[in-house]
Amino acid sequence: MRWPDLPPLNSLLPFEATVRHASMTRAAEELHVTHGAVSRQIQNLEKSLGVRLFERGTRSLRPTPQARRLAAAVRDALDQVDTAAREVARRERGGPLALSCEPTLLMRWLIPRLPDLSQQVPGLTVHLSAGGGPVSFDRDPIDVALRRDDFPVPADVCRSPLFLERIGPVCSPDLAERLRAGRRGASGVAGTGPGASGVAGTGPGASGVAGTGAGNGASGVAGVTILHSSTRPGAWADWQRLTRRRVDPAGEQTFEHFYLALQAAVAGVGIAIGPYALVHDDLVRGQLVAPFGLVEDGTGYHLLSPQPPERDDRIAALLAWLRTQATGL
Fold first, then answer.
1. Looking at residues 257-265, what average pLDDT do you find?
2. CATH T-level assignment (fold) for domain 165-299
3. Is the CB of residue 268 less than 8 Å from the CB of residue 172?
4. Could you tell me the residue ranges of all domains in the chain?
5. For domain 9-89, which architecture applies?
6. Which of 123, 148, 153, 196 is least surrounded, with the fewest CB atoms within 10 Å of its CB?
7. What is the sign of the dihedral through the CA atoms of 84, 86, 88 and 90?
């Protein structure tokens, strides 16, 4: 062996994570292993080196100076291996393109359009993965990411805009009729006018402007269950802030993911805030309606890439196709 003094290599990842977090528990969570597995690897490393690497207290774990020095060297080595691996595995032009996309957008908008991608750009193969929030092209095994710009994007990441975010309450047609009947009962006048039809893509209510006089406070959501998502808990508050409409629900229900809340809306469970891209197809099919229209919330979706799209034919082709699909959103 050319490196007779190397410690057990399988102990280095748990060791580096433990030093970084000053916690075996958090290291285990990061590596998706048990606390006991991390502890055993640390013990094996200490035995191999013949030194103690951590000062253990009742509720604390403090790396020694020797541990910090070794961890820095391990981190540098792992960074070099990671960089080299990416260079070796770098896909040639024309090879698969790894795209990370926000889960609900992936399920409800992108995947249904993939057959068109294969027809319009037959030479492009896209490998999809679900992911949200910030991306690191240095560490994540992806080439591009489709994200809503609700987080800071590093200056060295290229942002290619696709479409603006528009939101509004969406529900089943039957529930929309109940809402209109409730408004008629309250005012004696049917809920006509922009945004009352609940049909996407027609009339001012679908154009990105809140329907029926946003700001007058005269109409809102009342007497029905409103649906929340844990992944965007402020959606209803954002809509109220933008439209100044009232929300007086008969009940509330929270779902873990956005797509679950939207599926519950399709099933008639209640009314949810629907971003247009995520509910577009359901609106067209008539499974959902938008009784108050849609309004821009100041955010938008972008294709993020580590370099300008024109430097990679695959990314440029994907971006052009995405923009054709985003027309009208």
1. 95
2. D-Maltodextrin-Binding Protein; domain 2 (3.40.190)
3. yes
4. 9-89, 97-162+300-326, 165-299
5. Orthogonal Bundle (1.10)
6. 123
7. negative
pLDDT tens readout for residues 118-177: 999 998 999 999 999 999 898 888 999 999 999 999 888 999 999 999 999 999 999 999
d(CA 54, CA 188) in angstroms, rounded, equals 74
Residue listed under structure tokens 């050319």: 2
**Same fold: 97-162+300-326 with 165-299:** yes
| Locus of tokens 């290599």 | 9
> pLDDT averaged over the chain?
86
pTM: 0.64
Task: Give counts: helices (H), strands (E), the chain.
Answer: 11, 12
pLDDT for 74 equals 94
Angle at 118 between CA 276 and CA 135, to 5 degrees: 55
Return the CA Rg of the chain.
Answer: 26
Residue 209 has pLDDT above 60, yes or no: no
d(CA 19, CA 63): 6
Token pair for residue 262? 């939207």
The rounded distance, in Å, linking the Cα atoms of 235 and 218 is 21
Q: 187: which 2 tokens?
A: 């005012």
**CA 166, CA 297: separation in Å to the nearest integer?**
6
Contacts 24+ apart (CB under 8 A), 154-157: 156/306, 157/304, 157/305, 157/306
Q: Residue 173, SS3? A: helix
Residue carrying structure tokens 């993965």: 129
The residue to which tokens 């696709």 are assigned: 162
Element (H, E) at 300: strand 295-305
Tokens at 175, concatenated: 């529930």
